[in-house]
Design brief:
The chain is of the alpha+beta class and 467 residues long. 39% of the residues lie in helices and 15% in strands.
Length: 467
């Protein structure tokens, strides 16, 4: 990567509307936008220290403070890593040309750069997509920036800014790499995005959608940390007792006491402290507050909500036990169908639109995600269609999660169930068979042997004739 960066920052990448040698954009009305700071930072932070305000904070707190969010996305990323893929012909998704026409592309995907393997770049991309709603792959396309890519690098979204023209839209990117601003044209960056309903160029990640929930988790963690730091003392109320030597305070003194109280004892950083003020005070211990007693239950509820935010069933997360095997199987299918599949679809579509055409025509890259359906579900929903000739055996097998049988034409044929009986005659055949079994017919007598024929004992019979 060092050699690549050296070439990128060598001053030979001047483009209209872009930057050259780290100089700002000179084209009029063109803006370099930090999307991460533009869309984030709407939730209230009680301490002012841990605010979800940008892609940088999404990634920082997701990997250090909000463990439930990390675990949820980690579950998705592990399934994506284990999902097999292939290069197929566009007109035949069942084909496999990974070792043929798609060999060069497959080799790049398996080893995208000199430092990472395919699983590494997939893992980071899933986190960037789920947390930030966007992910960037930089393609090393040679000196002119137009050749076939030889390396792929997953860029950190917090380091990438978008170059936006008010007329042409998104015209490029600027990334902080190796301590320098490096410009990229639009055809040098693969831009993965979960579409944002409220922004034309940004993506909508789970962090932005759940900012209030996640910020509440951070506030609660900060409060709890301060509570234990300050000795975990129970909350108390300080009451000023009326006394002849200690008359009631006036309004000015009261305001001064409020300001002092807020400074010394207010806020999450001062949680758990006991206030000490002058005067004749009496301390009444309230014990552990109801909010503290319910803190464990509230934290558990927040954890469950975070997993739900990321689309992870609680049984898959290990927070609850499934009622039975069938329920566990359904939860796993929902996890794959509604959490993993959309992420894979976003990645697959971007790879096929931005990368695959640079290697070969009429091919496509396909993730083969399993576990999206069960044999029981297929039997319930699809067997009636098979019996009416609407599906072939191979189509039924694929719907149930099995591989199709290619070398047998019977599995590509359509069948229809015969022998259908009208409702008013249903059971008539069985009734007739039952009556015949209960009252068997009498056996017919054996026929007498005909003249000139051998009888059962083998002797011939002849009619006597008179001379």
């Amino acid at each position: 990567m060092l050699a690549w960066l050296k070439r990128l920052t060598g001053g030979r990448r001047t483009k209209q509307g872009m930057v050259s040698n780290s100089r700002p954009v000179e084209a009029p009305d063109v803006r370099v936008v930090d999307i991460g700071k533009l869309i984030a930072g709407t939730a209230f932070d009680a301490t002012g220290k841990n605010t979800l305000a940008s892609y940088a904070t999404y990634l920082k707190f997701g990997t250090s403070k909000i463990w439930a969010s990390w675990k949820a996305v980690d579950l998705i990323a592990q399934v994506v890593q284990d999902t097999p893929w292939k290069i197929a012909r566009s007109d035949d998704p069942r084909s496999d040309v990974t070792a043929g026409k798609g060999a060069d592309l497959a080799a790049l995907l398996q080893v995208p750069n000199e430092w990472e393997v395919w699983g590494d770049i997939l893992y980071k991309t899933v986190f960037h997509l789920r947390w930030c709603g966007v992910a960037y792959w930089a393609m090393d396309r040679g000196q002119g920036g137009k050749g076939r890519p030889t390396q792929l690098w997953a860029l950190n979204p917090k380091l990438v800014k978008q170059v936006i023209d008010p007329v042409r839209g998104l015209i490029g990117y600027v990334a902080m790499l190796g301590g320098q601003l490096v410009p990229f044209d639009v055809d040098e960056i693969m831009y993965f995005r979960r579409p944002h309903p409220n922004h034309d160029f940004a993506g909508l990640g789970d962090m932005e959608a759940g900012e209030e929930l996640l910020q509440d988790w951070l506030n609660r963690q900060d409060w709890q940390k301060a509570f234990w730091k300050n000795g975990a003392a129970p909350l108390s109320v300080m009451i000023l007792k009326p006394h002849t030597e200690n008359p009631s305070i006036n309004a000015t003194q009261f305001e001064e006491l409020k300001l002092r109280w807020h400074k010394e004892y207010g806020g999450g950083a001062n949680a758990g402290k006991i206030a000490w003020l002058t005067g004749q005070w009496e301390k009444e211990d309230l014990g552990v507050s109801p909010s503290e007693m319910q803190n464990l239950e509230t934290s558990r509820w927040t954890i469950e909500q975070i997993f739900m935010l990321h689309g992870i069933p609680l049984s898959v997360a290990g927070l609850e036990a499934a009622a039975n095997y069938a329920t566990a199987r359904i939860d796993d299918i929902r996890f794959r169908r509604y959490a993993v599949k959309p992420t894979i679809k976003t990645m697959q579509e971007t790879i096929n639109s931005d990368l695959v055409p640079l290697f070969a025509d009429n091919v496509t890259m396909i993730f083969e995600l399993s576990g999206l359906s069960s044999a029981a579900e297929a039997a319930t929903d699809l067997v009636p269609l098979f019996e009416r000739g609407a599906l072939s055996l191979n189509e039924l097998r694929e719907a149930a999660g099995f591989e199709p049988i290619e070398d047998d034409p019977m599995f590509e044929s359509h069948y229809i169930a015969q022998g259908l009986v009208p409702l008013d005659l249903a059971g008539a055949t069985f009734t007739a068979q039952q009556e015949e079994a209960e009252n068997p017919p009498e056996p017919e007598p054996e026929p007498k042997p005909k003249p000139g024929k051998r009888s059962f004992n083998g002797h011939a019979h002849h009619r006597r004739t008179d001379d």
